[in-house]
Amino acid sequence: MEDNNRVLEGKVVRVFFTYTVPVILGLVAVSSAGIIDGIFLGHYVGTDGLTVVSICAPILPFIVAFDILLSTGGEVFCGKYIGEGKFKKASQIFSMVSYLIWSINLIMMILGLTFVDELATFLGADQRIHAKVVDYLSVIIMCIPFLSSFGLSYFARVDGLPKRSSLSLIMTGVLNVILDYIFIGVLDWGVEGAAWGTSLSYLSIPILLMPHFFSKKGHLKYVLPNKHTWSVLKDIVYNGSSELLSEVSGGLLFYLTNITMMKYYGTNGVAAYSVIGYLLYFNIMVCYGLSDGVKSIISINYGAELFRRVAKMGRLAIANVLVLGLVLVSLVVWHSDSLVLVFLKKSNTEVIALAQELVMMVWPALLFIGVNLILSSYFTAVHSPRPSLIISLSRSLVLPIIFIIILTKFFKGEGVIYALILSEAITLLIGLFLLQKQGRLKALAT
C-alpha cells in the first residue's frame, strides 16, 4: 500500500527510476537467456545451432502472446482499480486473467506436441536439420506453462513489488546461464540442452512471485471472478491487443525474414541474421522493460487523474530510450567485429563477413525502436488502445512486410535491413501524428 502511495505522491523522477530500473534489469536478464543460448550454441554446436534456434524463433512469440495480451490488458485495469482504491475489483481481474492463461497454455501444449513434426517443416527446417528442430521445439512446447509465467511479473509490479518482480526475471537469466553451461557445455546436449536451459530457468518467476498473491500483504488475491468481471474481458483483450499483435507479428516477421535470408544466402544467411536478431532483441527488451515499467506507474497515476505526472513520466521515458539508442549505435559502429565474434567462431569466415556487413547497416533502426515502444505503451496506459494498436501493427507487421516484399526485389537480402529501418522511421512519424491528434503531443513535449 505504501508503494502505491509513493507512486501517486513521490517525486516523479525517483518513482520513475524505482519502477523502471528493476524492470529493465529483469528483462535484460530474461533477454540474456536467448542471447546466452546463442553464444553457447555458436561456440559449442556451430552455425547449425544458431540456424536451428533462428528457425524456431518465430514460434516463441506465439507461445507467450496470449499471456502478454491478457496480462498487459489486465495489469492496466488492475492499476486503475488500485489507484481508485477498488481492490476487490482488481483481484477479480487478476484472477480471471490467471485462470484464462492457464487454460490456454494447456491447450497450446497438447496441440503443439501433437503436430510438432508438421510445425518444424512449416517453419522451414530442411532434411539436414529437421531432427534438431523437432528436438528443440518438443522441449519448448512441453514447457509452455513455465515460459508463460512471465505475466505474473506484471501483476506483482502493479501491486507494489517492482523489485521482487524484477528479481524473478534476473534469476531467470542467471539460471539460464548456469543451465546452458551444464546442458550444452558439460553434458553436450546441443540444441535440446539450450531448450531445457531456457525453459527450466523460467521456473524462478512463479517460485518467487506466486506466494505474494496468497499472502495478506498485497492487494491482489486469487478469488472467484463475478459476472461483471467477465464482462470486462473484451476491454482487457482490446487494451492488450497491441501487445498481442506486436508479439504475433514479430513472429510472422521473423518467419518471413528467415525465408528471405534462406532464399538469398542459404543457411549462412539465417545464421548471420541471427546475430542481428540478438542485437535487436537486446535493444527491444531494454526499451520494453523501460516502457513496461513506466506503463504501470502511468496507469496508476492516470486512474488517480494526476495528468501532469503522467506527461512527465512519458517525457522521461522517451529521453531515456533516446540515450540508450545513441549508446547502442556507438557500440555497433565502433565494435561491430567484436559483437559478431561473441556468437561465431573465427573459423566461420563467410558467416562472419556477412554478419558484420548486416550489423553495420542496421544501426539507424536502434534510434527509433525505443521511442515507438514507449509511445505504444503510453497509449495503452492511458486507455487509448487504438493508437497503441496502430503503432504496434505499423512497426512489427504491416510496414515491414510491405517493405520486405518491395525492397528485396531491388536489394535482395539487404532489402530486409532497409525494410526494418524504414518501418521504424515511418512508425515514429505515425506515432507523433497520433499524439498530436489526441492533443497529447504538447504535454509530452513541454
UniProtKB/TrEMBL annotation:
CDD domains per the UniProt record, alphabetical: MATE_MepA_like
GO biological process: response to antibiotic
Transmembrane segments: 12-40, 52-72, 93-116, 136-155, 167-187, 193-215, 236-258, 270-290, 316-334, 354-375, 387-410, 416-435
Membrane-related topology note: Multi-pass membrane protein
Tagged with keyword Protease: no
Compartment(s) where it occurs, according to its Swiss-Prot or TrEMBL record: Cell membrane
Top-level division of the source organism's lineage: Bacteria
Family of the protein in this entry: Belongs to the multi antimicrobial extrusion (MATE) (TC 2.A.66.1) family. MepA subfamily.
Name of the molecule in the record: Multidrug export protein MepA
UniProt source species: Sediminitomix flava
